[in-house]
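Q: Hi! First time doing this. I have a protein sequence and I read that you can turn it into a structure. Is that right? Here it is:
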Amino acid sequence: MKRFVKILATVVVVILAIALIVPVALRGKIADIVKREANAMLTATLDFEKLDISLLRHFPNASVELKGLTLVGAADPFVGDTIVAARRISVVVNLMSLFGDSGFEVTKVILADPALHARKLADGAVNWDVMRPSEEEPAADAAEEETPAEEESASSFRLSVRDFRISGATIRYEDDSTRMSFSVDPLTLRLRGDMSADRTNLDLRLKTERTNFVSGGIPLLNDAEAELVAVIDADLANRRFTFSRNTFRLNAIRLGLDGWVEMKDDVVAMDLEAGCDAVQFKDVLSLIPAFYTREFKNLTAGGELDLSLWARGEMRGSELPAFELKTEVRNGSFQYASLPKAVTDINLAARISNPGGVMDRTEIDLSKFRLQMAGNSVAATFYATNLASDPTFRVTADGKVDLGAVKEVYPLEKGIELEGRVTADVKLSGRMSDIEKNRYERLGAQGTFVLEALGLTLENLPPVEIRRAAATITPAAMTLGEFGLTVGRSDLQANGQLSGYLGYLLRGEELSGRLYVKSDLLDLNEIMAALPGGESDDAAAAEEEASSEAAAQSDTTATALEIPRNLRLSLNTDLKKVLFEKMTIENVAGEMSMADGTLSLDGLSLGIFGGKASASASYSTAADPARPALKLKADFANASFQRTFEELEMVQQLVPIFAKTGGDYSLALDLATTLDAAMSPDLKTLSASGEIRSENIRIQNIKAFEAMAEALNNDKLRQIEAKDVKIRFEILDGRVKTDPFDLKIGDVGVNLSGSTGLDQTIDYQAKVAIPGGGVLQNVAVNIGGTFTSPKITLGVKEAVQEAVTNVVNEQVQKLTGSESLSEEIAKQAENLRQEAKNAGQKLIEAAQTQRDKLVEEASKKGALAKLAAQKAGDKLVEEAEKQAANLEAEAEKQIEKLTAGK
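A: Yes, that's right. Below is the predicted 3D structure, encoded as structure tokens:
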């Protein structure tokens, strides 16, 4: 007996050891196999952080647990998109079913914090199509032969779910082709039932805190609560599901669902009916986010709602079953406890129905909508059919609303104020095909729309006021007879006519027309600061500065102004004053046009930089909305150098010399560049050419000219006052390059050419003509470094060569004109030697002076800099001494030639 107990204990210990050790030993290999095999079948990448296998955690059941699961797109156009993710997935299997012939029994499935993102692009591509296509299709005979095996394999899996749970799920679906999106967050679900049985009762509990649904770009649900409690009689053998004891809640509205659904092949048959009993109007308001989230508990409402829905028949392909959704609100009203007035006499009757068949037979009929608000009445109707092929519609709107009364019936957000009056009497009817083909005579469109003294005040935004806007409509056009707008300090008046407005409003088609626009002040800085991404206040600016590093890594903080492709407008402008960044632009007049994503200016005249300008330009986002293309041809007259530098940042970067330049200029400019998201020129892509002219120019306190004056020992070069200056230039590869041009500074002439870079570096060559300089009448000067720290280099070698040439030419002329040739040659030969010696001495003295100045400047920067300057200066003197010697040697050669021929 003792031996048997020992054997039994040993067996139990071995089994427990195997149960503990085997899963731990094998889970790494199993995880690698799962990943490898799964990714071989997928075009996406499947990964998970950990795979746990346990034979004891749910004994006598086995459990498999995945942690950190992700499925990420790996094929274009969804590379890097996370399709599925889950913090934890647990599956519990009956351990004994692994050893039987009745199949595997899954008893529990748990999904913790799963996330699903499904997306369909406009071209039809979907991100969930991640299965790799089979390399070859099995033959028909083979498929038939394998059928029994497949059936046997299928029957070996039995799902008997005692507890199927999902917690914290996030589900998103986006369809770019229809502009439809759906999302829930977070979603919890619990489902019970024996999925392996032919017939079972499925007990379903589902709840989501935030449900959002957008169709055609129109929000229909926004953060709505949804809950479903259902017991479904599931005939799994015949795929027929019967609903009973079911309740669906959407915010405060509860619906009961009865009937059945049966699925066979590609046909879904149904007989469903849904309705709600004793629904109060307050429950209806709960579906509207603006009501359900603002003081809903303090809202009293009256009136009743009837809501019914049924669907009967078959859904096969594009064919729909017969259905009808009908709702009616009678004598509705609501009032907030904190406000003095109520909205009353709310009456609505709406119906969406289809007798069965194609989508075109669907009708949408809002036959009645009326309400009274603080003495103001509003009424509207809407009807549409033939939705798929050629929508037919009728719309009416009639009413008068005092917007100042809104705050008496609805609690506005803090900082929001409304005022003004809206009057409308509009009727529209027709077919969409008539709009598309411009057959406006077949449409019915008439009415008026008037806004008066409309005011809107929002926190942190400039106040908006529409003084008066009056429009009349016909099928062909909308005529804007009057429009007066004030935004903060800015004012705008407009009138004109717009064509194709129906197609634009209903289908986003092209809107064309002509408008006349006037303004006394247009402060674009104030308006742009109020737009998304703008700095609306000091706090926002401080916050942006504090997070500048993060902002630098994000390209979403600012967006360039995009020109819509479906606008074809001509604008005649008369703008008295426009403020943009640091610029003040005055008397803007001319033609603007907008077409195909491009804004064009033609013959525009304006006052800018203290002068006048005429310009033609284009601004286009057609190729890349994130990087607009700008082209400009402009002529400026009598513009101020100083104001140009102060008001235009690009000039500060490219032409910093403008900061110290007085006088005015005229300019012809041809420019092309791309702009960044902040609407600033991308200087790396900027190219331009032109000519700048000035009748009077004054430049002083420029360190480059001061250094040149010191090098040449001529103070006249410190301050430039010149007239009739013409400079040809081009901007290319980030540098402003100038053709050679002449400056007359008193009796000193300077010929200057070179370039300035984005990094403020300069590279100029100057030829300075010094009157009374003897043999040194012209000196070449190279100006490098930067404008604030210039480096001056004198052309010593060139000066020596010129001096030699001048001396020799002068002496030869004197020698050949002498009456006593031998005596005169000897005398002039001596003079030639002396002149050459004097010229050489001047070169040496100039080099010594330059060396002393270099050493003096370098001594301020330390001993090493001084030592380097001394060595450089000594080299300069040494070179001058060599050139002086060459000068004397050249003089001796000339003397030798003269004496040889005497």
